[in-house]
Design brief:
The chain is α/β, with parallel strands linked by helices. The protein has one domain: NAD(P)-binding Rossmann-like Domain (Rossmann fold, 3-Layer(aba) Sandwich), CATH 3.40.50.720. It is 50% helix and 16% strand. The chain contains 10 helices and 9 strands. The strands form 2 sheets. It has a 7-stranded parallel sheet with strand order 3-2-1-4-5-6-9, with helices on both faces. A two-stranded parallel ribbon has the order 7-8. α3 (67-77) packs parallel to α4 and α4 runs parallel beside α5. The longest helix is centred in the middle third of the chain and has 29 residues, at 102-130.
Length: 264
């Protein structure tokens, strides 16, 4: 369709930027969503020039409760038909659970969880009307791992997002809509520095760290094929498989090597 677009949140850095590039490479028009207007404008211009696609953007802070409605109204007023919705925006809190304020916890949960639900709810009715649509929820291998000392609510909300992804597929596959939970392991982005845990990331073995581009390429391919869950790279597929079967006490013995600082 002439006005068919892919909307990507957190689109100007890390995995979100690489997903935007991969979609543009495949010829999809884009709506980029992030907080900083200058970075959005710059990224939009670059993607238009490099891939000869249509690309618009909207500055939005998903910690604010009204943001999903504002994003939807923007695309609705411009008559953009959203065929692909990529819920990628995210961050984590560096401090222990008892130190973080409730306000900070709520803002983080809004970005990682309720904004994902709200945006999906906004666009899924249009997808139903169109008879097709694809949703990506950028989750994490943390959804499969035991509870950790760092980022106490991050793993649980990602587990919740995976279950939400299952619900979407159960209810809407018959209507031509698929949802893919993209679950990367350690990825080299600005995420860890921005979340205040770069020291822990620095201690992770090199073979466990994957590039954002590789995660994006595998994730977009899985979404296009309608896969329900994508764990990029053979390394992390194997680790997730192991996590499903080994007792937690064995994982605890290995965690100091594989995830330093995460399981103190």
């Amino acid at each position: 369709m002439k006005n068919s677009y892919a909307l990507v949140t957190g689109a100007t850095s890390g995995i979100g930027l690489e997903i935007s590039r991969e979609l543009a490479r495949r010829g999809y028009n884009l709506i980029l969503v992030a907080r900083t207007k200058e970075r959005l404008s710059k990224t939009s211009r670059e993607l238009i020039k490099e891939y000869n696609i249509k690309c618009d953007y909207f500055s939005s802070d998903l910690t604010l409760i009204n943001s999903p409605e504002e994003i939807y109204q923007f695309t609705n007023q411009k008559k953009y038909s959203i065929y692909i919705l990529v819920n990628n925006a995210g961050y984590a809190l560096p401090n222990a659970f008892h130190i973080n304020s409730m306000e900070d916890e709520e803002k983080c949960l809004r970005v990682l969880g309720t904004s994902v639900i709200a945006l999906t709810k906004k666009y899924i009715n249009d997808m139903i009307s169109n008879g097709s649509g694809k949703i990506m929820i950028v989750s994490s291998v943390a959804a499969f791992a035991p509870a950790s000392a760092l980022q106490a609510l991050y793993g649980p909300i990602k587990t919740f997002m995976n279950r939400f992804n299952e619900t979407l597929n159960y209810n809407y596959n018959s209507m031509g809509i698929t949802s893919t939970a993209l679950c990367p392991g350690y990825t080299v982005t600005n995420f860890h520095k921005a979340s205040g845990i770069q020291d822990e990331m620095d201690g992770v073995p090199k073979f466990l760290k994957k590039s954002a581009k590789r995660i994006a390429v595998e994730g977009v391919e899985a979404m296009i094929k309608g896969k329900k869950v994508s764990v990029p790279t053979k390394t992390w597929k194997l680790i997730v498989l192991i996590l499903k079967f080994i007792p937690n006490w064995i994982f605890s013995l290995l965690s100091g090597i594989l995830a330093p600082g995460r399981y103190k």
